[in-house]
Amino acid sequence: KSVFVCSQCGYESPKWYGKCPGCGEWNSMSEEMRAPVSASGPKSASGGRGAPRVVQINEISADAEHRYATGLKELDRVLGGGIVIGSVTLIGGEPGIGKSTLMLQICSKLCEFSKVLYISGEESKVQIKMRADRLGTFSEHMLLLCETNLDIIGEVIRRSKPEVVIIDSIQTMYNENVSAAPGSVSQVRESTGILLQLAKGLGISIFIVGHVTKEGTVAGPRVLEHMVDLSLIHISE
Q1: Cis omega (within 30 of 0) for bond into 28
Q2: How does DSSP assign the chain, residue by residue?
Q3: CA atoms within 13 A on the CB side of 4
Q4: Is the full-model pTM beyond 0.90?
Q5: pLDDT by residue (tens digit) across 134-179?
């Protein structure tokens, strides 16, 4: 069906408004086509392995270590002591500021003791390899995938079982069930939702790279920053 979506806040309406009822922004509503929802209902984050077990809060131990260091002291400090297992972190910045290079630096440290899957939708494997060679050596635990289809990406993640996944960038990812173009409000929101399910259901830490506009906001819906566990946005002076 046809819906109108606000590019600023993600508000949806069956009809067009000059002024968004959600955030009050003018001329921000754009038309998108939506595929019908499956009659089988939404899938669980457990990947269809049955209903999750309900536990008492007193049964949960908070003493266990749920973070691991990246090897980069400043990044560990910003992350509160290291990467949280099963977390989704948004890395935002202007185009060309060095987001991809930073993520490869993190991968070079993490792949020494963890399996890392770097997923790129913007560059070829050769381009990534050339940048990686300038940064140093990578172990055999560093995996690389150039893909933008979320169905294929989800299958690769379940099969390879990495501990850390890098998505570069969220604006290039798309879900076949959403007819809108990659980078649109609906695609960014739905793609992030799928990645959240994978992170929480499989216990994988995911870093999402997102482009920042000249106004200092992540390209796409503002709700993206609220969906993730942590947002790290860098804006040049």
Answers
A1: no
A2: -EEEEETTT--EESS--SB-TTT--BT-EEEEEBPPPPTT-PPPTT-SS-PPPP--GGG--S-S--EE--S-HHHHHHTTSSEETT-EEEEEE-TTSSHHHHHHHHHHHHTTTS-EEEEESSS-HHHHHHHHHHH----TTEEEEE--BHHHHHHHHHHH--SEEEEE-GGG-B-TTB-SPTTSHHHHHHHHHHHHHHHHHHT-EEEEEEEB-TTSSBSS-THHHHHSSEEEEE---
A3: 14
A4: no
A5: 988 899 999 999 999 999 999 999 999 999 999 998 989 999 888 7
